[in-house]
Amino acid sequence: MIPLADSLLKYETSSSHSHQRPSSLQLSCVPDPTKQAEEILNAILPIKEGQQQQARETSIFPVRRELYSWCFDKLIQEFLLSVQDENHMTITTYEASYDSRVAFGSRKVLKIEELEIGKKRLERQMKKQKAKCEGTKNNLEKVILPF
User: Fold this and answer.
1) Angle, to 10 degrees, between the axis of helix 33-44 and the axis of helix 62-144?
2) Is there a contact between 11 and 27 (Cβ–Cβ < 8 Å)?
3) Helix/strand/coil (H, E, C) string of the chain?
4) How far apart, in Å, do the first and last CA atoms of the chain sit?
5) The pTM is what?
6) pLDDT 10s per residue in the chain (147 long)?
7) From CA 86, how far away is CA 76, in angstroms rounded?
8) Exposed, middle or buried by CB within 10 Å (0-12, 13-18, 19+), for 103?
9) For the chain, how long is the longest CA-to-CA vector?
C-alpha cells in the first residue's frame, strides 16, 4: 500500500477525527489543475523545510525549477506526439477514402465501356435482322405480286 505522504491523491478526513487516526479516508479529485500539478510535483520531489525557506527567498528552488521544466517538456512532447498521431490517422483516412473513390470510378468506367460494347453488338445484330427482314419482305413481294 502507498503511504499517504507518497500518494498523488489528496486525502480528506473528517474534522472530528483530525487528531486521531482516521477510520475512513475519503478520496477527492483535485479540481484545480495547477494545484494538482503542484501536488504531483511535491509528491515526486518534496521540498524540505530548509529548502522551503530558501525557495521563498530565491523564488523557486533550482531543482524544482528543473523539475517543472522537465515536466512541461514532457507534457509538450506528449501533446505533440498525440497531434502527430492524429494527423497520421487523418491522412491515412483521406488516402483510404481517395483510393476507394478512385476504385469506384474505375469500376463505373469499365461498366460503361462494357455497356457501350454490348450496345454496339446489339446494334449490329439489329441491322442484320433488319436486312434479313427486308430480304424476306422483298422475296415475299416478288412471290405474291405475280399472283
Assistant:
1) 120
2) yes
3) CCCHHHCCCEEECCHHHCCCCCCCCEEECCCCHHHHHHHHHHHHCCCCHHHHHHHHHCCCCHHHHHHHHHHHHHHHHHHHHHHHHHHHHHHHHHHHHHHHHHHHHHHHHHHHHHHHHHHHHHHHHHHHHHHHHHHHHHHHHHHHCCC
4) 120
5) 0.44
6) 444 444 444 444 444 444 444 444 444 444 566 677 667 666 666 555 555 555 555 566 777 778 888 888 999 999 999 999 999 999 999 999 999 999 999 999 999 999 999 999 999 999 999 999 999 998 888 888 766
7) 15
8) exposed
9) 136
* Amino acid making up residue 33: P
Q: Are 26 and 41 spatial neighbours (Cβ–Cβ below 8 Å)?
A: no
CA 40, 46, 50, 51 dihedral sign is negative
- The amino acid sitting at 31 is P
- What is the residue whose three cell numbers read 461498366? 111
If you search the block for the grid coordinates 520531489, which residue do you land on?
45
